[in-house]
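Sorry, can you check?
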Amino acid sequence: MPAKSEKEILLLTSDRNFTALFEIIESVPSRKRSISIETEERDKNFRDVLMHLYEWHAMLERWYREGMDGDIPYMPAPGYKWRDIKLLNMHIWEKYQDVTLNQAIKKLKLSHKRVMDLIESHSNEEIMTKKYYKWTKTSNLYSYFAANTLNHYIWAIKKCEAIAKYIKEVERDKK
């Protein structure tokens, strides 16, 4: 059996991490999944984490679309520089406070599928070769895709594990 390409590993690992993320959320009874934890951190519930991922998928899709159209996309977002990432992430958090968890789940599952389809549409060479596309500058598509899928999902898994643990402990203490 031939070794898997970086593209195949990216797709498999991203899907595996995405599935693991939802397994954590589903480990909490559905009626408790919207509970917010007491924390000084930005993300206080599953919805916050999922909408953060969703918005970063949306930014990636914009970068990709603009880049493939021959433009140099503004990254990370119009009005923000990479050094402003905390401010941008807080803006994202504020933007989605009225979204329900069910809406967040639907949005994220759709955006995950779109990003996986983008990855699937490229050859391993196109994904791995630095400077293959002008808009990726000195980098490659892999770095953009991995940052917004498998690596971001690892961050989200850790956040959701902490949220799930908190919810389960509060419920256990009530008994």
